Amino acid sequence: MLSIDPTAKAASAASAERRARSRGFTLIEVMITVAIVAILSGIAMPAYFDYVRRGQLPEAFGNLADFRIKMEQYYQDNRSYGTSSTVCANVNTPAWANFVPSNQKYFTYTCTPSNLVTGTYQGYTITATGSSGRAVGHVYTISSANAQATTTYKGSTVTKGCWLSKGNEC
Questions:
Q1: Residue 36 belongs to what domain range?
Q2: Mean pLDDT, 10 residues at a time, the chain of 170 residues
Q3: Please, are residues 89 and 48 in contact by the beta-carbon 8 Å criterion?
Q4: Residues 64 and 140 sit within 8 Å (Cβ to Cβ)
Q5: How is 17-29 classified by DSSP, letter by letter?
Q6: Is residue 4 assigned to a domain?
Q7: Residue from 62, 83, 80 nearest 72 by CA
């Protein structure tokens, strides 16, 4: 005849009770998980936003270079960059002279004539100013001498002779 030891039966019941209680997470485990997620997001989010910002800046670089080429073509046709002190390319005004490219999304563009010689302007500066997204707080320029410059970077005034996109050095 088979007999069951009462001590073994009690140990088995206690073991089953422990298994039933250990199905969830303790408060400490949850708090540790929350702390790890907070630390990771504190590092990841600024890096992601910087990545997005750097992805929006090439719009300005490409459009400034394109406008410079158009201005040089305009100069070849008209022997000046215009006659107005406020508007570039105002003689035989081409369609692009409003400086609003079709792919404009994050920047606005302006052109300022310079170097007045006998009623015509022989120089210019085209400026790209961040207007939306993460590009706000960035201002880039290019001149008729092909001098590239960054005047505002991440909201701070700088004087760099290049177009900054990452870091503070050319």
A1: 25-56
A2: 59 63 82 94 92 95 96 94 91 89 92 92 96 96 96 94 89
A3: no
A4: yes
A5: HHHHHTTS--HHH
A6: no
A7: 80
* Residue from 139, 122, 141, 140 nearest 72 by CA: 122
67 and 49 assigned to the same domain: no
Question: Tokens for 125?
Answer: 């500066």
Q: Determine contact, residues 120/87, Cβ cutoff 8 Å.
A: no
Question: Hey, is 106 helix, strand or coil?
Answer: coil
DSSP 119: T
Exposure string for 142-156, b = 16+ CB within 10 A, e = fewer: bbbeeebbbebbeee
The whole-angstrom separation of Cα 123 and Cα 125 is 7
CA distance 110 to 103: 15
Looking at the structure, tell me whether residues 32 and 98 fall in a common domain: no
Q: Is residue 8 in some structural domain?
A: no
pTM of the model: 0.78
Secondary structure tally for the chain: helices H, strands E: 3, 5
Q: Residue 30, SS3?
A: helix
107, 119 contact by CB (below 8 A): no
* Structural tokens at position 85: 């002190």
